[in-house]
Amino acid sequence: MTRVVLAPDSFKGTITAADAARALAEGWAAVDPAAEFVHRPMADGGEGTVAAFEAAVAGSLRMPVTVDGPAGVPVDTFWLLLPPTADAPLGTAVVDLGSTSGIELLDELRPWDADTSGFGQAIAAALDHGVSRLVLGIGSSASTDGGTGMLTALGARFLDADGAVIARGARGLASLTIVDLSALRPAPDVRVLTDVTNPLAGPRGATAVFGPQKGLVDEVGRVRVDAALVRLAALLGIDAALPGTGAAGGTGGALVVWGGVLVPGAAEVAELIGLAEAIADADVVITGEGSYDGQSGDGKVPSFLASLAADAGARAVLAAGRITADADTSLFAASVSLADLAGSSAAALAEPARWLRAAGSALARAAR
User: Fold this and answer.
1) Which domains does the chain have, with CATH numbers?
2) Residue with the larger pLDDT of the pair 125 and 10
3) What is the pLDDT of residues 329-353, one digit of tens each?
4) 68, 201, 208, 147 alpha-carbon torsion, rounded to 10°
5) Distance separating alpha carbons of residues 50 and 34, to the nearest angstrom
6) PANTHER family, per this entry (predicted)?
7) What is the spatial distance between Cα 167 and Cα 176, in angstroms, rounded to a whole number?
8) What is the pTM of this model?
9) Which pairs with CB-CB distance under 8 Å and at least 24 residues apart come from 158-162?
């Protein structure tokens, strides 16, 4: 009997990691009905982080909360309460920026006005519950506000030269003169999950690298926001060149100021959901993501899973929405692209579960 661990990331914007794992298992079972499946859907701090914990940790509870989304309108979402452990006797809260202040919540990009207030409000709700530890996923950000919206929700004040509260989002950073952290809520043990190592500012900073995808397409505007982030760093007392502070439009830096520790997302999620233990006696590990490309070898879920499988003596196989020409698939015993199976990327995107089932069957045949 083949023991198969299913540990894909989400296929961004099309199917969750948990649903992707189910579809892959169905496809594999069609070829190898005697196989035993262990579901460990993965995430690296971005979309699907909360869902990965919910699927893997028994006794986790959804805690509903309504927050101000990135467009300033209410968003009904939830944070996840994990059961008490020796390290977190009052429980752990998992809060996902993507579901509170994420770019997928916008009908249209708002490069100047979107902010992270909702993320901070969800964190505040978890603190009100009295948890011992926070696990914060900060992928899929909609804004470049330097985390000011989040810190404001936790008690900080960001003011202009006249002592007035600055506008939300990147727009307000230009007039920022005073930072008041005197009422900032104390932080518990805070782990910040990210796969981004970019600094807050500069040519590899939050604005230069990630600004365009959030709508900051004008170079003059990006220069203005980058300069504002440098000033914000000085007012907060952090180094704008510190790796990871540019994650989520500067939210990584704001969380460092609050006391958070930036950790590699995939590795931290794997530890907290017991992935190594699940893989220890596996024959095959199936992983995947929406686009496997030249950047996927840098701490992303598939490359991390391939390394973990190799250490356990298991075969790693890959299913991806697409596999680009610059991608290195040598880590995997077999790999398959949904776009190739479906005939086009559009067809694969239209029916991801169908083509993931087909991918599961193809990988099962390849593993024989």
Assistant:
1) 3-42+275-366 (3.40.50.10350), 49-266 (3.90.1510.10)
2) 125
3) 999 999 999 999 999 999 999 999 9
4) 0
5) 31
6) GLYCERATE KINASE (PTHR21599:SF0)
7) 9
8) 0.88
9) none
